[in-house]
Design brief:
The chain has 389 residues and is an alpha/beta fold. The chain contains 13 helices and 15 strands. The protein binds pyridoxal-5'-phosphate. InterPro entries: DegT/StrS_aminotransferase, PyrdxlP-dep_Trfase, PyrdxlP-dep_Trfase_major, PyrdxlP-dep_Trfase_small.
């Protein structure tokens, strides 16, 4: 494979330019540390944006999940339920704590956690007197899960929710910010997310005391003593003041980024929806997705193209695309973990994995670049159709 065509990335960082002023300020004031005025301000601004009382800025979304699980006292021998169709970071912190993940399948309308599978899992756990310490619900590719149903079930069994909104900052569900439904919510500012601090994450909640404890755990759990004294296990997880400055400038353009990604989705949808066998990831009624990534499924019989072959064609054109996340219950590292499918006969996350493809969706993607992606997909599907006709 060799081409001189310019690389089109899946979801590259998109700076506004104003980040430099915040970085300059951090340098001018010499706040070059994992604390400082930009960290405090970023926490307040983000909490206010998503409608929570407080937020704790940390070094990654993964760290935020780890801290949320610690706040819920997850320890060795516990179980934690988690969406199966997600990035491995959603579940890894469960294992950091020696607990066991139980994976819950997706449902077709949101591609997120299936309430009916969750209900079966909770009912069975209650019967065995082994309810999970937490349920981690993921909002995939920007689409909110069915929170009304999931919150009602978790309330009925009194199991707290951690909302993994790493991919859904800027999305809403029935007018409320995605990530604001659980006891704790987490966001990520990794380089590929809708806004980025290069690397970083944040934990949000109305549990102000809990977040204070999260900050304590994130700074090596140092007791209140002049000498270094520690009575609990801590981590070095706080966000740098330099990066929090980048985050503040990025948060100021978040709404523009959402509009740009939604426009990218609309253009794909207008150009490709008429092709046979193509379906876009749905947007649930009364929700607004940030369309972090535009994702579609290909019916190989109707399109004549498999995900693998389309990925090959795009790669040859120097276009970065990806399959949908491999479900965690299928991952070698989680072999043997319990898993609840949507129904006896429907394994929705497995279907989405075999037929789904994520297209370049960055907010800086130009219309010319997007036209290259669209033409490439149209050509491969039309060629495949004419060959089978
Ligand atoms: C990116 C991501 C994370 C982890 O965030 P990091 O900041 O990379 O640690 C967790 N969950 C999901 C669904 C993600 O996409």
């Amino acid at each position: 494979m060799f081409t001189n065509k310019k690389r089109i990335y899946l979801s590259p960082p998109h700076m506004s330019g104003n980040e430099l002023a915040y970085i300059q300020d951090a340098f001018d004031t010499n706040w070059i540390a994992p604390l400082g005025p930009h960290v405090d301000a970023f926490e307040k601004e983000l909490a206010s944006y998503v409608g929570r009382i407080d937020a704790a800025a940390v070094s990654s979304g993964t760290a935020a999940i780890h801290l949320a699980l610690r706040l819920l006292d997850v320890t060795a021998g516990d179980t934690v339920f988690c969406s199966s169709l997600t990035f491995v970071a959603s579940a890894n912190p469960i294992v950091y704590l020696g607990a066991a993940p139980v994976f819950i399948d997706s449902e077709p309308e949101t591609w997120n956690m299936s309430p009916q599978a969750l209900e079966r899992a909770l009912r069975e756990a209650a019967r065995q007197d082994a309810l999970p310490k937490a349920v981690i619900v993921v909002n995939l590719y920007g689409q909110s899960a069915k929170m009304d149903e999931i919150v009602a079930l978790c309330n009925a069994y009194q199991v707290p929710i951690i909302e993994d909104a790493a991919e859904s900052l800027g999305s809403s569900y029935k007018g409320r910010a995605s990530g604001s439904f659980g006891k704790y919510g987490i966001y990520s500012f990794n380089g590929n997310k809708i806004i980025s601090t290069s690397g970083g994450g944040i934990l949000v909640s109305n549990d102000v005391e809990g977040l204070q404890k999260a900050r304590f755990l994130a700074t090596q759990a140092r007791d209140n003593a002049a000498h270094y004294q520690h009575s609990q296990l801590g981590y070095n997880y706080r966000m740098s003041n330099v990066l929090a400055g980048i985050g503040r400038a990025q948060l100021a353009v978040l709404e523009d980024r959402v509009l740009a990604r939604r426009a990218v989705f609309e253009r794909y949808s207008a150009a490709l929806s008429d092709l046979p066998g193509i379906r876009f990831m749905p947007e649930l009624a009364q929700t607004r997705s940030n369309r972090w990534l535009t994702v579609l499924t290909l019916d190989p019989d109707e399109t004549g193209v498999s995900v693998a072959s389309l990925l090959d064609v795009l790669t040859e054109e120097n276009i970065e695309a990806r399959p949908v996340w491999k479900p965690l219950h299928m991952q070698p590292i989680f072999e043997g973990a319990a898993y609840y499918p949507h129904s006896d006969t429907e394994h929705i996350s497995e279907q989405l994995f075999t037929t789904g493809i994520c297209l370049p969706s960055g907010s800086s993607l130009t219309e010319e670049e997007q036209a290259r992606v669209i033409t490439c997909i149209q050509k491969s599907i039309i060629t495949a159709k004419s060959m089978t006709a």
